[in-house]
Amino acid sequence: MSQHYLYESDEDSPTRLPSLEVFWMSAEEIAGFDWIDGDGELMGPGWYWWTCLPGCLPDSDPFGPYDSEDAALLDAREGLEDLEDDGT
User: Fold this and answer.
1) Cβ-based neighbours of 76, under 8 Å, separated by 6 or more
2) For the chain, what are the domain ranges?
3) pLDDT for 7-61, tens place per residue?
């Protein structure tokens, strides 16, 4: 698993921790967790992300699958500019 900052601006802060993980899951690993998508189907192999502080259990369900680690990270950060512009 690779840890990333949800907000890229946090990367240079000495008081911020990475707040999301991006990871690969095989079909066998997913079957062991019984991850089901919104349509009631078993999720497929690929790259996933979830919010999670280092050393802690995830704060969200997994999102994915994506074709690459970069695509998963981009999806995690999608729309954050709008939230920052609103001051929320």
Assistant:
1) 4, 6, 20, 22, 49, 63
2) 2-86
3) 888 989 999 999 999 999 998 898 888 888 888 888 999 999 999 999 899 998 8
